[in-house]
Specification:
It contains 14 helices and 13 strands. It is α+β, with helices and mostly antiparallel strands. It has three domains: 4-116, Arc Repressor Mutant, subunit A, CATH 1.10.10.10; 118-262, Tetratricopeptide repeat domain (Serine Threonine Protein Phosphatase 5, Tetratricopeptide repeat); 310-418, 2-Layer Sandwich (Alpha-Beta Plaits). The longest helix is centred in the middle third of the chain and has 24 residues, at 165-188. 31% of the residues are buried.
Length: 422
């Protein structure tokens, strides 16, 4: 019970993992012997602040299949019990002051200051996002602090309370987003061991988020730990299939070929690779984005096909730079590359292939097109990009080249198309 001796000490409400209210050395929780309805009422109003609700709406939200003859009387009784639990029966102000009844509705009103771990978690992630562009180290520090707060989901003790689900999903999604943003920041520092550590922690919370598996495998490969990367790939794909019936996505399949190449097992078997392409591309609704190593295999496969040996095979290199080929700010470049990726996906057809070659370049394979058609395709991509990314901050350079050695030179030399539009 919270009493006068501790009334000047801050009140902390923990909602991640096991719910509790702490003030000094005192702890109040649902383990105190009170009914679960009491704490559901308390947490429902806390989670939905500052909205107000009629008694029947609160009770219906908490126990949708239960009927109450007099919802108002039930709520009055719950508030009475909460006042006792939070020592509102004494003259000193307590947290129960925040449970307000007005005009037939109940709401949470911050009359007595308290802090919640959920608020702190959100605040740290928001601050990290503000700092990411100009102060990445501070952003990393904020995300790391936020990840320490998140434990086993929002109100994990209340698994049978359906009203909690939207809040639990919100914080879970925010946690995963924060993990991936931290991975991106560590990747820029080439801190692959830190990425591995963070991903392993995240997988302990949500094993079935494929993005975390991909980030971990990429970090292991970048660290030269190819055997560990292969072992994790095998374990993850097997678990996804046996427990959820899910086959590897195109992104995971691309990693498989990267692992094979890095482990020295990269000989191209045209028949096997054709089978891989068919399975992989059938999962693509539009163009397929692949790993650079898979892109190399696709080029080799195309060049080995008899049908292509007598005609050009055009590839296009798209490069983003500052004016005068200056290297742009990394954050601005990343945002522009995302927009360029979207522009490429909007234009390319089903089973067309492209890859991100490096920080500022995309490569696109254009089989079956003439040079004129390939140049027109690049013009269209540039048009889409300028719509998605208005304001001429960066310059998009476009180069189309025939990569088929048997036909190279039969057409005019590649031209470098640079956007000059305002």
């Amino acid at each position: 019970m919270i009493d006068n001796e501790h009334s000047k000490q801050p009140i902390t409400i923990n909602t991640f993992g096991s719910f509790s209210i702490k003030q000094g050395h005192l702890v109040v929780s649902q383990q105190s012997g009170r009914s679960k309805l009491l704490w559901n009422v308390f947490l429902f109003l806390l989670s939905n602040r500052p909205r107000s609700f009629h008694p029947e709406i609160i009770l219906k939200s908490i126990y949708p299949h239960k009927q109450y003859a007099d919802p108002s009387a039930v709520m009055r009784n719950q508030l009475y019990l909460l006042r006792q639990e939070l020592a509102f029966g004494k003259k000193e102000a307590s947290l129960a002051n925040n449970l307000v009844y007005s005009s037939g509705r109940y709401r949470w009103d911050d009359r007595i200051w308290c802090k919640t771990d959920a608020e702190k978690f959100e605040s740290l992630v928001d601050k990290a996002r503000e700092l990411a562009r100009e102060h990445p180290e501070e952003s990393i520090s904020h995300i790391l602090e936020a990840l320490k707060i998140y434990k086993n989901g929002y109100l994990a003790d209340f698994t049978d309370s359906d009203w909690v689900i939207p809040f639990r999903s919100h914080f879970h999604d925010l946690y995963l987003s924060a993990v991936l943003e931290l991975v991106a920041l560590f990747k820029k520092k080439k801190a692959y061991q830190d990425i591995s550590h963070i991903c392993e922690q995240a997988l302990a919370i949500d094993y079935f988020d494929e993005r975390i598996h991909i980030s971990l495998i990429e970090a292991l490969l970048a660290s030269g730990l190819t055997n560990l990367a292969r072992a994790h790939y095998d374990e993850a794909t097997a678990t996804f299939y046996h427990e959820m019936g899910i086959k590897p996505s195109s992104a995971m399949k691309s990693l498989y070929w990267t692992i094979k190449h890095q482990s020295g097992d990269s000989e191209l078997n045209p028949a096997r690779f054709a089978e891989y392409l068919t399975a992989n591309f059938n999962n693509c609704e539009g163009a397929c984005f692949v790993d650079p190593e898979v892109f190399r295999h696709i080029i080799r496969y195309e060049l080995q096909r008899d049908v292509i040996k007598s005609r050009p095979l055009f590839a296009c290199l798209l490069t983003l730079t500052g004016q005068g080929y200056a290297m742009p700010n990394q954050v601005i470049l990343e945002e522009a590359m995302d927009k360029l990726n979207e522009a490429i996906l909007r234009f390319l057809c089903h089973k067309d292939v492209f890859t991100r070659w490096n920080d500022c370049q995309y490569l696109i394979l254009l089989p079956g097109l003439s040079r004129e058609q390939a140049n027109k395709a690049m013009e269209r991509i540039n048009y889409n990009f300028r719509i998605l990314s208005p304001g001429k901050v960066l310059v998009l350079h476009r180069k189309v080249a025939d990569i088929n050695p048997t036909t190279r030179g039969s057409d005019r030399e590649p031209r470098d198309y640079v956007d000059k539009s305002d």
